[in-house]
Amino acid sequence: MPIYNILNKVINNIPEVQKPLTKLSFKEKLRWTLFVLVAFFILSVIPLYGLGQNTLSQFTQLSIILGASFGSIMSLGIGPIVTASIVLQLLVGSGILKIDLTTKEGKSYFQGLQKISTLFFIIFEAIVYVFMGGLAPSPTLTLSTYKLMQIVLTAQLFLGGLLVLYMDEITTKWGFGSGVSLFIAAGVSSEVFVRAFSILNSSGSVFFGSGLPPVGKVWILFISLINGDVSNTVLALVTILSTILVFALAVYLQALKVEIPLSFGRVRGFGIRWPLNFLYTSNIPVILVAALMANIQLWARLLERWGYPILGTFSGNTPATGLVTWVFSPQIANDLILGTFSTSSLFQALTYILFMVIGATIFSIFWMQTAGMDAKAQAKNIMASGLQIPGFRRDERILEHLLKRYILPLTVMGAIAVGLLASTADLLDALSRGTGLLLTVMIIYRLYEDIAHQHMMDMHPMLRNIVKK
Question: pTM higher than 0.90 for the full model?
């Protein structure tokens, strides 16, 4: 196919980060991971040159989920990477784009398409952010200077998007986990710490003697207890406890596994248990749902600014009408405690829960089918390891039939549990968005498992003892 050949030539000419030629040690991976993380935080505080208006700064939660810092070089964050992944997952999962992901060539082609798609969305989102008024130059400039600064801003966003793309690739090949997961976990962790322990108030000054309450919920809890303020005490307590509850449940669900007994066909008396996690597709579908919801809110705001509020309108920072209100979580706990609960809030909360659960389930199934996690691909991996089902002849079809009993139910049930947990945390106003908290727990837990599995013997003895515990 001509198009296939053209795309292959483009893929082969796109610069990429080479894989290490030898297995990296724990210290080497840690060094590269910390380097990327520090670089990301430094780039997040470098402002865009020539920026005048930053109407995206109000989307705080959106910036955390996308690993972005609106108004800086990192304004795009991981948005283009995740958006490209959503589009390709939908195309491949629906059969519109036919790629055989069971072969090495198919996987390589899919990864190349994902990089091309990411580059496209970097350019596209940079143009949209600047030319549609999200990140715009100062309106006081002359027309020619204004247009020139638009080009300068777009170029800076494109550069930031490229840096994120290759920092993600560096982390994946030379560090721990992936850059996408790392940036999300870092952003959510910093927000949780600030919302829990910050001594600053909403104006950015220390709250002592300022007359304004602090941002940190722990301080609000103590101050409200001292002053006998029951409502604020309960609100702060619910926020803190809901965060702890989400962390505890997420760790518990992450540890649940179904173990399938297998034996080595050529060595009698020896066998292992092949684990299938309850949260089978891990955190990827949750990232995709969160990115989809974030994009809906972002486009609703931009369309409203352009005079076409087809996705809904906003009242300040809160959605007021249209589709965007139904993908925005109401603060049910606050409404109940303060006595402002209404029937519309209940319907909005139920719709939000359904959107999260159904969205997570759909993306989870697509990811299972396209990421080599289906029963057929797992059966091939098991057979290639020399394993088989005890008491049955060595046949891939038998193993695939057995795995089908577990993989699809685990994919669906895990997605439902993740959707319910994330939406519940949002409704209870946890210290960060439920999606972000859930993602952070999953990312850190999976990182812990990977490090313990791959580098238990070459890490520092003190760290080894901590990991063992």
Answer: no
